[in-house]
Amino acid sequence: MTEPGMIADDPNTNNLRDVAALLAPDRPLLITDADEVLFAFMAAFERHLHANDTYFNWASYRLNGNIIARADETAVDNPQVKALIADFFEQHTRTIEPLEGAAEAMAALVAERGLQIVVLSNVPAPRHGDRQWALARHGMDYPLIANEGAKGRAVAFLAARTNAPVFFIDDAPSHHDDVAVHAGHVRRIHYVGHPRLAELIGPAEASHLRARSWDDIRRFIEDHLDDTAT
Ligand SMILES: [Mg+2]
User: What are phi and psi of 57, to 5 degrees?
Assistant: First the structure.
């Protein structure tokens, strides 16, 4: 029997319903993004761009239009951006570095507050196994769902499995907007691991907390659990 919140790497778990079935109805739930929340996506992606004779120009949060070819200093077109991202996940999903404090904060929340954790990542589905492997390698072996597009419906589906408080973490403001629409009761934490990217993005309007570190995240979750305890 698998403990909720910890599963082995099994391709059959790459599925929202299978992961939802692991959840206990009486334990708080954390649904967390991976890139730029658990893993240092931007740092690794910039290295990948440099290796491909391109760079990110930091003009805005979007990748489309902001990746520049060194050869002629023009923006690479959207299909090429898509290919660079696909190549990145194919080559680097296993080696991307974890962000400081994430594994420790989550382990403490599981051990001390009974949290159950699901990783809801827009990693391409064929890279599910690589990402689960990297999560395990860095002490974050929580069940992973390879999502596509908006996250609100998946969060609502998972959140419906528990009567206890539910928390959501993501770096992308658009996901906070969508979760606010589909699962308004979920406590939403906006966290961007990369400091320069955090500055560029600004706070997500639909979030309850703009976290600066995993210590901030842990404190917010603990305070909310204390406030809602009966
Ligand atoms: Mg992300």
Answer: -95, 0
